[in-house]
Q: What sequence folds into this?
């Protein structure tokens, strides 16, 4: 890629270029034509974008992807080549004027209300409410869903890993090679950072989104050194004095003297591994973090690592730590921690006991919870496949449903009650208790009065008549803000860092029993009494009376 | 996006711009520095890219992604902004000359052997063998894995859906909104087409890859019409005579006369739905395919659809068919087929009985197999979530292992035998039987003689001593070709269409018992006697002797 092209890319830092109006399902365009043809294109429509079920058998979701939605709107425009392609694809009977119409079409008359990016959200609450001319609002569907679905799923997954690991553990995303292609990998890095990860191994994500990047070396680095003869450069200058020493000689000496501490035999340790670690230490004397499981953690890896770390210490450098990529991580991390502490005491090097222990072998949320129970001594997890593919549930399933057209409410009836959509233009509030925790989310019709602090609010289950509760909120938070109106952004967008902070802040207002991994308590999403009656009147109107014969 | 930008995009039609050298894990770059620093960068290394287990509990995999790997190599170059970013990220102690070195680094001395894209492949067979200067070969790892992993997983998943559906069913990919973001969606469209799908709903994929696109309308189209008054345009010109008729009037008349054939009451059918279908028919008189499950398939949807289809027939147009998106698809498709056939006979319209029936509700491989058992009458499936997320196994797990360095073989030892890598530079052959079916894949050392047709070849299990077989092949196919050498492509790449054909051709050589959904027979991947001994000698050399105490 030339620098010019690269520049173009960097200009679009926050958004992938493939996010353009044709990144949609064909039926949006055929519908658009049919609306245009039947002169319905300017009917005023209201659509809700929401999901029906929290992912990962959990009881919360993190909303993400809003910024990319807005960037998409800002650039929405059918190019000449788009129009040319559409002409070639659609039936030749299409009225030529439709394409002229498309050329000038922009979302300038669309209004979008949205929940703040990074917020905890729940089923049925519209993440976006999109209103405006039917044709335009319909044309946005697929792209908005694409941008919100994976972003929110990924941020939620990352937030769950964060909760499982606790706040003091470093979490790095290592999933690029297992993601859904190049951009799947970039999205994974971005949204796992938002969800609470500390960084990624993906260098391009680091460059594009200004996310911290991390990583050291692979097993192949170790195995590329076969004997000590492969070590062409053996010297390193002392950090303070600048005097040059033979690092191999120093490490060799240490290896002999600490073998007994580890309970290993020098003769069993790999010299290829020692050579690799020395060469790596020479390259990164201040960032020495070594993979120690290529041959045998206890008989070789830890012995070689400690020897090199002690040699570095002789020259004024502090090693960073080790990475474990196989085997029993709880046992190995305890073994390593204990060893580091003993060596720290024996050689009077206080930081030695605190060396970082990283782990990275096919880790999922349950692995972390299980490692916690086994009192692991790991400081940092590198997580790939399970994080980026969201193995436990690889799609969120957001939908985009018409709830009103030309001021007439629309309801989707289904035999499956969970699939019934809540009709009409709605607003949502989060009601908080005296302890600052969120009590319930409340959907109201947009025409109703806003719930008042310290006043009794009747909250009803949207479909079950008998489930009702009075709530007296200490704080009432409106969940939606207008983000897009008159063709422009009308609300400052949060930076990546602010969204990341918002996630943790928002999660803190949620009671622990809603967040726990096992059998979490469902958080309640209610409707007002007015909205309840409105839904049920419409439902009865539209549901056919069955007949048994 | 301006047309200029778009042009840039189209120039890169076959490859997403984010595929660039920084789309990698940071540890590749830190390793590169350490190799450079220790003067090992030009050590001659051989890496194999392979997977250990077929996905989806199946016994075969489709190899895909090769073309994107080659395009990546062709453009491989660190831009100034890449170098600037790396400088800002890596420790300040890094020798400045390393960045100069990176600036000029290209894969010109790398040689890549690969299996042909679209081939059926099996565990342990190198999909790519990458040789050349250690530093460069290592720097390619993550990107090559990213490009092959999801592409192959997706193509395999699509091929499985194709086998489940049979060759006469139209399969459309509908997954954009549930994919891993924008490019995840594009990759899904491309590789499901390669795997045997007939098209996609993703318009941008259609434009970029020249894949057929399909789609009609959503439920929201139907619900945007509330009564017949919403129908502003009701007329359509006769296809042959050009005479203008009132389509509503004609449809209304037909609805009254066929209600009894369906066993429905006109009074129960939705007039909003009728209005929607008429408007859609006016927009697409030659491509009328209607969603019939918005209200009630039997009481409303089919009645309205048939009324409009018959009205279109009066004006010389042939309707295409219906789409079902909920409920019991086997029952409904049979109900619809039976109805279409009865109406076809009654009104003497032969094509009516053959109207297309599409289905699209959360379909996976098992759903199709179950629908087959229930003798469904569906002609076309639209498949989204389960296809693009590969729900049953969302990652393939290809790995990239060093097998030789400076002519010395490298073996990765593991307690888990399936994780032991097969050392050394290898070539692979597929041996075919007299019936044209593939019998076994055979890995040999690159120095061995090629197996001969009609000569006995001893094939051994790579790790189990007693598992051996003599094979007398009728045909011997070398599996690898050189694709990249001296800085350029040296083998014509197949077009998308050719790769798609290759998949089916390659699958045809595989016995059915290897391909079946339930308990498929594993296809054998063997090693030559020479390679067997080579592996086991090395294994014994490297495996430490355990000690029990």
A:
């Amino acid at each position: 890629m030339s620098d010019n092209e690269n520049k173009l890319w960097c200009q679009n830092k926050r958004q992938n270029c493939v996010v353009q109006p044709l990144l949609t399902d064909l039926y949006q365009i055929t519908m658009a034509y049919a609306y245009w043809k039947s002169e319905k294109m300017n009917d005023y429509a209201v659509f809700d974008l929401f999901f029906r079920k929290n992912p990962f058998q959990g009881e919360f979701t993190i909303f993400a992807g809003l910024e990319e939605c807005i960037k998409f709107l800002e650039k929405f425009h059918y190019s000449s080549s788009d129009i040319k392609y559409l002409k070639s694809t659609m039936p030749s009977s299409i009225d030529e004027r439709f394409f002229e119409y498309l050329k000038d079409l922009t979302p300038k008359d669309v209004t979008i209300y949205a929940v703040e990016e990074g917020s905890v959200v729940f089923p049925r609450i519209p993440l976006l409410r999109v209103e405006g001319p039917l044709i335009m609002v319909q044309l946005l569907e697929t792209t908005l869903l694409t941008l919100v679905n994976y972003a929110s799923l990924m941020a939620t997954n990352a937030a769950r890993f964060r909760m499982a690991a606790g706040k003091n553990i470093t979490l790095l995303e290592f999933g690029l090679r297992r993601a859904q292609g190049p951009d799947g990998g970039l999205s994974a890095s971005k949204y796992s950072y938002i969800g609470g990860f500390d960084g990624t191994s993906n260098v391009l994500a680091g460059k594009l989104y200004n996310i911290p990047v991390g990583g050291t070396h692979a097993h192949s680095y170790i195995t590329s050194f076969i004997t000590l003869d492969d070590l062409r450069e053996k010297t390193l200058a002392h950090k303070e004095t600048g005097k040059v020493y033979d690092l191999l000689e120093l490490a060799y000496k240490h290896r002999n003297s600490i073998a007994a501490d580890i309970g290993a035999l020098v003769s069993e340790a790999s010299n290829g591994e020692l050579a690799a670690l020395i060469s790596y230490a020479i390259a990164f004397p201040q960032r020495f973090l070594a993979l120690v499981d290529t041959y045998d953690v206890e008989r070789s890896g830890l012995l070689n690592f400690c020897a090199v770390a002690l040699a570095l210490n002789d020259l004024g450098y502090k090693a960073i730590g080790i990475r474990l990529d196989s085997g029993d991580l709880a046992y190995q991390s305890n073994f390593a921690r204990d060893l580091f502490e003993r060596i720290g005491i024996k050689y009077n090097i206080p930081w030695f006991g605190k060396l970082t222990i990283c782990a990275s072998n096919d880790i999922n949320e349950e692995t972390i919870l299980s490692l916690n129970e086994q009192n692991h001594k790991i400081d940092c997890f590198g997580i790939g496949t399970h994080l980026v593919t969201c193995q436990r549930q690889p799609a969120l399933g957001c939908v985009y449903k018409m709830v009103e057209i030309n001021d007439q409410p629309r309801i989707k009836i289904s035999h499956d009650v969970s699939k019934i959509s809540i009709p009409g233009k709605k607003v949502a509030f989060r009601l908080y208790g005296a302890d600052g925790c969120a009590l319930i989310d409340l959907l109201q019709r947009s025409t109703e009065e806003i719930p008042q602090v310290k006043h009794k609010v009747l909250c009803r289950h949207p479909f079950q008549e008998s489930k009702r509760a009075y709530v007296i909120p200490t704080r009432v938070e409106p969940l939606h803000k207008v983000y897009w109106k008159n063709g422009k952004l009308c609300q400052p967008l949060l930076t990546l860092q602010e969204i990341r902070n918002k996630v943790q802040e928002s999660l803190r207002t949620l009671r622990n029993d809603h967040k726990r991994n096992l059998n979490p308590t469902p958080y309640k999403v209610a409707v007002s009494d007015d909205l309840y009656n409105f839904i049920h009147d419409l439902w009865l109107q539209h549901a056919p009376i069955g007949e048994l014969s």
